[in-house]
Amino acid sequence: MKDQIKVEGEFKMKKKRKIGESKGSEVLERKKKQKQKAKTKLFSRRLFCISTKANMDSKQATEYSKVVKIIKENGGEISSTVHRKVFALITTLGAVQRCTQRVRKACKLDIPVVDVSFLTESVQKETFLDLNNFYLDLTNVKRELERREKAKDDHSDAAGKEETETTSDVSITSKHVRKIHLGCCCSCHDSEKASCSWCEKDH
């Protein structure tokens, strides 16, 4: 009798243990899903553009595909071009030093240009970090934009000056043009006719 009670007690204990383990697993699974859901929404409704080109030997070089993966896995979207709806340009120091086209365009449109570490650290800490801590120095980019703008203006001035000189030459030449009346050139005169209905006004 005592042995039967002991066996029943052990059975109940095992059953309770299994139920407890099952509930514990459910709680862990629920927390895992909540964590995954929060992770997915980290960059939701954010549109990013990427410029990670750098010299092959540069330590700043980051694979484009890896950056895309981080953004998409956390709910963000990718734009292939820089425009005013882009939230931020994710780039590297190497790309800024090379003044890539996307870096120049972002600088021109006042779009935040931030280091790729903004993504990795935000995901690691599971929070959307402050962009101000990841801004890259764009001094050389702004200088390059000014240089290009000046070169463009100089080219426009040179083209305008050349066009003015050409127009001036034409007007001077036109003063020496004298109209010469060659008479009627109608084919009726080839057959020794004095005139025809088409050229009477010239005779």
Throw out a few tags for this protein.
203 residues; alpha/beta; four-stranded parallel beta sheet; 53% helix
Please give a structural write-up.
The protein has six helices and four strands; from the N terminus they run αβαββααβαα. The chain has a four-stranded parallel β-sheet with strand order 2-1-3-4. The model has no long low-confidence stretch (mean pLDDT 77).
How many strands, what sense, and barrel or not for the largest sheet? 4 strands, parallel
* SS element count, helices: 6
C-alpha Rg (nearest Å): 40 Å
Spans where pLDDT lies below 50 across 5 or more residues: none
- Helix/strand-derived category reads alpha/beta
| Shape annotation | elongated
The overall pLDDT, averaged over residues, is 77
Distance between the termini: 148 Å
Counting DSSP E segments of at least 2 residues, the number of strands comes to: 4
The proportion of residues forming helix, as a percent range, comes to 40-55%
What percent of residues are in strands?
5-15%
- Spell the H/E element sequence: HEHEEHHEHH
What is the spatial order of strands in the main beta sheet?
A: 2-1-3-4
Quick summary of this structure?
By secondary structure, the protein is of the alpha/beta class. It has helices at 2-40, 64-73, 93-97, 101-108, 117-125, 139-174; strands at 47-51, 77-79, 88-91, 113-115.
